[in-house]
Amino acid sequence: MRASDEIEKALDAALAHHRRSQEERGIVPPLLSLAETRRLAQEVGCELCEVELAALKARILPARYQRNLGTVGWEGQMRLLCSTVAVVGAGGLGGWVIEGLARMGVGHLIIVDGDIFQENNLNRQLGCTEANLGRPKAECLAERVAQVNSAVRVTAHVAWLTEDNAKALVGDAHVLVDALDTLPSRFVLERVAGLLGVPMVHGAIGGYTGQVMTIFPGDPGLNALYGPGEKPERGVETRLGNPAATPMMVSAWEIQEVVKILVGQGELLRGRVLVMDAEFGEINEIRLS
After folding, report:
1. What is the CA angle 247-248-252, rounded to 5?
2. For residue 243, what is the DSSP state?
3. Which residue stretches of the chain have pLDDT < 70?
4. What is the pLDDT of residue 228?
């Protein structure tokens, strides 16, 4: 018998016993605590995510996902655990996106960012603390994920996305997230998404405004949004700044687009961009062609 088969058999037996114990106590659906998940992983010799996935298949709910169940359901949670998402940019937008996806239970997160935290990041970037100043953003966010959801596997690349390295950095992902702050890099990410045949969730912020859209290969994309011709290195955020609330607002929509893609739920922001203005309390939709 292969080692993987032995692990699966041992997990099934342990979880069946756990289910009976929970049902005898009137706990429906049966719940699996973090402590119990860790104990089983250690006893059986497997990863935490393997225990969680086996539990979900047996209709035993890891307690950390109890508040997810009403929206994504059993099958949706399993899909999230089996998914890989690459978040490119681990600053204002990316930090919050990574946090949300880890808490939802996306099984593998790829984090790409070549930058380090600086003092002007302290006002809005989740991973930026006084203790983390001068440290690589990708590494700090990987540590944060380990503290939030240790079942999530993280691959952190302290690197800038380029035409040459993009496929190597994000090639395993089912969805790419644009949390970048330069237009040329956004277009590189969109091109690699097309080459890989995967969707890209785009988000951008400046001042009190932000925008979100989802781009599948062949959809109207960044050219339709930003227009043809030479693009500036950076957008309006250099003039308007980025207050604390704006990246939280836009990243929430990006997280939800990713979840909808992976779970196969709801209506995506395809062929249209959602524009939010927190200063005047307005949300508008722009159709792209």
Report:
1. 110
2. -
3. 1-3, 229-239
4. 73
CA atoms within 13 A on the CB side of 101: 41
Which of 110, 104, 9 is CA-nearest to residue 62?
104
* pLDDT at position 23: 86
| Strands in 16-70 per DSSP E | 31-32, 61-62
Q: Which of 174, 172, 176, 180 is nearest to 191 (CA)?
A: 176
Beta carbons of 181 and 234 less than 8 angstroms apart: yes
Please identify, in words, the CATH class of the domain defined by 79-287: alpha beta
Reply yes or no: is the peptide bond before residue 29 cis, omega within 30 of 0.
Answer: yes
Rounded Cα distance between 92 and 180, Å, is 9
Phi-psi label, residue 111: left if phi above 0, alpha if psi -120 to 50, beta otherwise? beta
Each domain of the chain, given as residue ranges in start order, spans: 3-66, 79-287
CA distance 57 to 112: 32
- Contact between 212 and 202 under an 8 Å Cβ cutoff? The reply is yes
In this prediction, residue 7 carries a pLDDT of 82
Contacts of 75 (CB under 8 A, 6+ apart): none
